[in-house]
Amino acid sequence: MASGSAPTSSEYVVHHLTNLNQTGEAQKNIVDFSLINIDSVFWSLSLGLLAVFIMARTAKSATSGVPGRLQAFVELLVEMVDNQAKGVIHSETSRLFVAPMALTVFVWVFLLNFMDLIPVDLIPSLWAAGLAAAGFDPGHAYMRVVPTADVNTPVGMALAVLLMCFYYNIKIKGLGGWTHELFTAPFGNHFVLWPINFVMQMIEFLAKTVSHGLRLFGNMFAGELLFVLIALLGGTATVMGFFGHVLAGTAWALFHILIITLQAFIFMMLTLVYVGQAHDHH
Questions:
Q1: Is 230:79 a contact under the CB 8 Å cutoff?
Q2: I want to staple 143 with a disulfide (CB 3.0 to 4.6 A). Which of 59, 93, 116, 127 is the partner?
Q3: Residues in the chain where the model's pLDDT stays below 50
Q4: Using CA of residue 52, residue 58, residue 59, residue 61, what is the dihedral sign?
Q5: How far is the C-alpha of 19 from the C-alpha of 36, rounded, in Å?
Q6: CA–CA dist 249, 235 (Å, integer)
């Protein structure tokens, strides 16, 4: 964002869609794997710890009598996730780990998505003020607060689910059994079909992982971009722009509550489905 003058619309949008990371030439190199989006990591870890704190505090203060509002809400979530896990994963032993993991995924992704409802300029403005007070250039105060709108976060979570699928494939079927399945499914156990079966299995794993992560990223990036565009209306210095900003922002925020909840539920359900498929024998 240009310092010392009001940013143009394009500068405003680009600034809000730029992550806080290592600045300089490395920032322009998209294949530089040493590049870390610090804001995505910070908010992901902070909200993850917040989710753990809330759940742990609720469990610690739980009573057998009439539950409070928070306890009742958490119990509702636990029951919902447990019912979904029972319908997908039939191994009770596996559900002892997978069901709590799915609950964690749902709460965590929801909190990450919920950051999209915070006014787009609030936290970046506070961050810029803090940098200015510390003597740094506030014009480069990049701060994206929606980790799931950064492709690295949802794809990284999808890769973690993929590793979990590998784990349960080996645990349930054994290394030999899973290797046999990789070469004999879906077309049958014939040596001519082994390479085709293996390629098809790899494509399936790749497609699941990519679609799992990009589905969440695409929806949240679109929501973030729309909020930024709506925020531009507030900077037009006209009465129509102001009311358009308020009305459009309110309407989209109310609708977006459904989207962030639905996306968290879909990500959780796909996690359960993919792990459940790892329990199936072919």
A1: no
A2: 127
A3: 1-3, 24-33
A4: positive
A5: 9
A6: 13
Distance CA 82, CA 91 (A): 13
Of 132, 185, 160, 142, nearest in space to 42 by CA: 142
Rounded-to-integer distance, Cα 269 and Cα 192, Å: 36
Name which of 189, 157, 140, 168 is nearest 280 in CA terms: 168
Report the distance separating Cα 169 and Cα 176, nearest Å. Answer: 10
Model confidence over 79-101: pLDDT tens digits?
A: 999 999 999 998 999 999 999 99
Calpha distance 169→112 (Å, rounded): 29
- Our measurement of the distance from residue 20's CA atom to the centroid of its chain's CA atoms, rounded to an integer in Å, reads 18
Closest Cα partner for 264 from 118, 44, 105?
A: 105
**Token digits of residue 135:** 């003597």
Q: Burial of 131 by CB count in 10 Å (0-12 exposed, 13-18 middle, 19+ buried)?
A: middle
124 and 228 Cβ atoms separated by less than 8 Å: no
Single-letter residue type at 132:
A
Distance CA 270, CA 158 (A): 10
What are the distances in angstroms from CA 185 to CA 101, 202, 276? 29, 11, 17
Query: Could you give the residue numbers annotated as active site?
Result: 211, 215, 219
Those residues with Cβ within 8 angstroms of residue 256's Cβ, 6 or more apart along the chain or in another chain: 116, 117, 223, 227
Q: Please check whether residue 103 is in contact with residue 75, taking contact to mean a CB–CB distance below 8 angstroms.
A: no
Write out the two tokens for 126. Answer: 């506070």
